[in-house]
């Protein structure tokens, strides 16, 4: 009803082309017309003319502005989204880059694309490449970075609502962040199950198999199934963990500041999370390049949940370009927290040296692999939907 009135009064004004009336379409561009239609059918909630600009929470659009805000009473719950960029300083190899040892190791398996490793159909036929990668990436092989300790620092300061990570390296836990504070959106090596009967296996059980270069088979499953046991890493076409769906709505609603670190926000549904916070909630990007910006086409249509760092309407998004570690140090310096951060890093290093238990020595994964290549191809019982890796959830390494 009020929608109807608004439309009528708007069309009675002197700006027919800008009004939400599809009937007076003579002078409208196709985009205006589309926007009018969307507005009329409530597919888009607002345009700038009829909405008050959201409250501006940052005193300036800069890293200093973000630091001032973090130190204020208004900023209690910080949500962090992180991706591969937070782990590059740890030396985690990019298995997609030719020339790295890992990529070359995997080439002998004749993978059409390195990401086939995360195709469940491929895995059931030939699990060896995945377990080669798993051995390489297994938690314990790599040290946490400054960026990971920054997460721990936010937790210690009582400001961390949750970390949403795309990484499967487990380095958030290595840095000491409480498991309750982490959502491993693309899964984890900490739990494992049989791909057929879903029986669970412990981390220790799996670790032993992986480091002995044995393919882990279910102790219950009989012939006729693959009986493979797989860490709960999310493969293409697999659903994200239930924990992701259980927590994301409340976390992003409660979020006072969103920090996006080391991800180019290309993988869905993870990338869409940036739009899940309130319209006034400030967002800080720490990354090598800008990303997550509003698609101009979507903006014209009235959907505006992407980041806006540079336009004259920018009011809450700040970019800190560079490596994650440098960005975190820079921010901590402005917060007066740099000493605390460096102490966490130093303590972590010390602990690492003293721990012999979980730090498994890296071994040359090339050994013994050839003998495993003649695995019987298991009967394919389930036909899996093959998803486009760009569109699908994918483990981000
Ligand atoms: Zn089983």
UniProtKB/TrEMBL annotation:
CDD domains registered for this protein in UniProt: SIRT1 (cd01408)
A GO term from the CC aspect: nucleus
Cofactor detail note: Binds 1 zinc ion per subunit.
Annotated coiled-coil segments of the chain: none
SUPFAM superfamilies: DHS-like NAD/FAD-binding domain
Active site as annotated: 186 (proton acceptor)
One Pfam family hit: SIR2
Comp. bias regions, Low complexity: 1-23
Swiss-Prot/TrEMBL keywords: Metal-binding, NAD, Transferase, Zinc
EC number: 2.3.1.286
Protein name as it appears in the record: NAD-dependent protein deacetylase
Species, as recorded: Phallusia mammillata
The organism's taxonomic lineage, starting at the top: Eukaryota, Metazoa, Chordata, Tunicata, Ascidiacea
């Amino acid at each position: 009803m009020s929608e109807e009135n608004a439309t009528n009064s708007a069309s009675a004004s002197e700006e027919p082309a800008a009004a939400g009336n599809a009937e007076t379409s003579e002078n409208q561009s196709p985009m205006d017309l589309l926007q009018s239609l969307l507005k009329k059918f409530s597919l888009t909630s607002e345009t700038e003319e009829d909405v008050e600009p959201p409250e501006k929470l940052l005193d300036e659009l800069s890293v200093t502005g973000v630091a001032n805000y973090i130190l204020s009473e208004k900023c209690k719950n910080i949500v962090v989204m992180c991706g591969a960029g937070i782990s590059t300083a740890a030396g985690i190899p990019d298995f997609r880059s030719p020339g790295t040892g890992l990529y070359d190791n995997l080439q002998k398996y004749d993978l059409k694309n390195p990401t086939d490793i995360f195709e469940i159909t491929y895995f059931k036929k030939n699990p060896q490449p995945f377990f080669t990668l798993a051995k390489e990436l297994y938690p314990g092989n790599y040290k946490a970075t400054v960026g990971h300790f920054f997460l721990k620092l936010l937790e210690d300061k009582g400001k961390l609502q949750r970390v949403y990570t795309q990484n499967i390296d487990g380095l958030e836990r290595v840095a000491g962040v409480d498991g309750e504070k982490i959502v491993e959106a693309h899964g984890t090596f900490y739990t494992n199950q049989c791909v057929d009967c879903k029986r669970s296996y412990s981390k220790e059980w799996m670790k032993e198999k992986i480091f002995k270069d044995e393919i882990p088979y279910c102790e219950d499953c009989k012939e006729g199934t693959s009986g493979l046991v797989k860490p709960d890493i999310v493969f293409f076409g697999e659903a994200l963990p239930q924990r992701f769906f259980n927590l994301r709505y409340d976390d992003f609603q409660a979020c006072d500041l969103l920090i996006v670190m080391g991800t180019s926000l290309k993988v869905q549904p993870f990338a869409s999370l940036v739009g899940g916070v309130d319209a006034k909630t400030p967002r800080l990007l720490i990354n090598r390049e800008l990303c997550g910006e509003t698609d101009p086409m979507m903006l014209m249509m009235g959907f505006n949940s992407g980041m806006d760092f540079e336009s004259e309407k920018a009011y809450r998004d700040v970019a800190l370009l560079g490596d994650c570690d440098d960005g975190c140090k820079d921010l901590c310096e402005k917060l007066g927290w740099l000493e605390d951060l460096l102490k966490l890093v130093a303590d972590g290093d010390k602990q690492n040296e003293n721990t012999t238990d979980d730090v498994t020595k890296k071994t040359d994964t090339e050994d013994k692999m050839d003998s495993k290549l003649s695995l019987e191809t298991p009967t394919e019982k389930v036909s899996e939907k093959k998803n486009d890796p760009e569109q699908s959830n994918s483990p981000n390494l």
